[in-house]
Each structure stands twice: as C-alpha cells, then as structure tokens.
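Hi V.,

You were right to ask for the full record rather than a summary. Here it is.
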Amino acid sequence: MTAFNKRVAYNLSKAYANQLDKGENYPLLNPTIALTITDFILFKKTDDFINKFVFQEETKKFKCLGKELRLIFVELPKFNKSLSELKSLTDKWIYFLKEAASFDEIPESLGEVAEIEQALNIANFINMSPEELEIVENRGIAMQDERGRIAYAEQQGEARGRLDQAIALVKLLINQRFGEVSQEISSQIENLPLANVESLVKVFLSFNSLADLESWLQERL
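Predicted structure:
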C-alpha cells in the first residue's frame, strides 16, 4: 500500500508540474485531478464508491489551496448497480469499467454514449489473439505498400492524390485502433508532408496508445 500511495502522489505532482516548460509563469498552471480507479476496496470506512480529497489543515480541517490539487478515487468493488439502474453518465462509465471484460457487444443503454463504444474497441484491440494481431500487422504491410505507390505517383506527377489516399488509410487504421480522434489530431495528420506520412506508416504499429501518436505529431509541428 505504501508504494500505491507514493504512486498516486507522484502522478498528481508530475501531472501538475509538467504543465510548465522551464521559464514559464505559474499563472499558466491549471487545477489538476489525479483519478485513481481500483479493483480493490481502498477506504473501508465508507460505502461510497467515489471519494474526493483536497488539501486541508490536519487538526481543524479547513481547506488549503482550494481545488488546485485534487485526488479522486473510484473503487469498482463497491459499485453494485445493475444495468437497469444506471442513470448518470458517471454510473455508465463505472459500470463499463467494471464489466467490459464480459461484453460481447455494448448494451443498448451504454451504446448511447459514443465514447464508451470507442473504449470497448480499444479494449478489444488490447485483448486480440495472435491471429487477430497478425491481421493488424498485415494492414501495416498494406500501408507500406501504399507508401511505395505514393512514391511512384509522385514521380508521375500524381503525388497529391496518392498522398490523400495514404492519409485516409492512416486515419482509418488510427480510428480502428484508438477510436475517433479529435479534429486537432485529424488536421495535423492531414497537413503532414509526404516524408512524415512515410515515417508515420513505419512507426504506427509501435504505438501503444493515442498519447504516443500525439507525442509523435507534436515533435513534427
């Protein structure tokens, strides 16, 4: 438990500090929340499945720093609502997190939240069998083949059309793996020069998360 507590504290402080680059001003900092989801019971003194914490004075309990730094814990074992009892968006997300492994498909009441369906697609990708992963790798080979066709088209004066096709293919595979991406990420991909599209084709299958893609794009702005 000591290591768990230190990890939670580390994640909160790191997320807060990483908002600033060297020399930037403190007013640029935004309030930070560390959301921790556990598959075990953490707080035995309460039956609440969501518990929120801020800094406060130890004895008189008055708050310090407002809500600049907050800890929120969600304890999945305490959440016992059935599918028919789900009312709020929070309930639906917690139910999904607790039961996703048992889903063959998204229940209708959860499917109303598009992001939950995208999250299931990501979860399914993580749990792919070797055969399914091979299909994804074959798609990567297809992307490399497309890269070769793009190079040829450029020599023939048709680079723009081929480049558009390659970008569309990259975006399709990204959506299949990580779900629908933001308009900002989509625009960044669309504005990539040919050399960077080729680089993205090469490294895409090595990305483990959408954050890896975002970092790669940021380095090329």
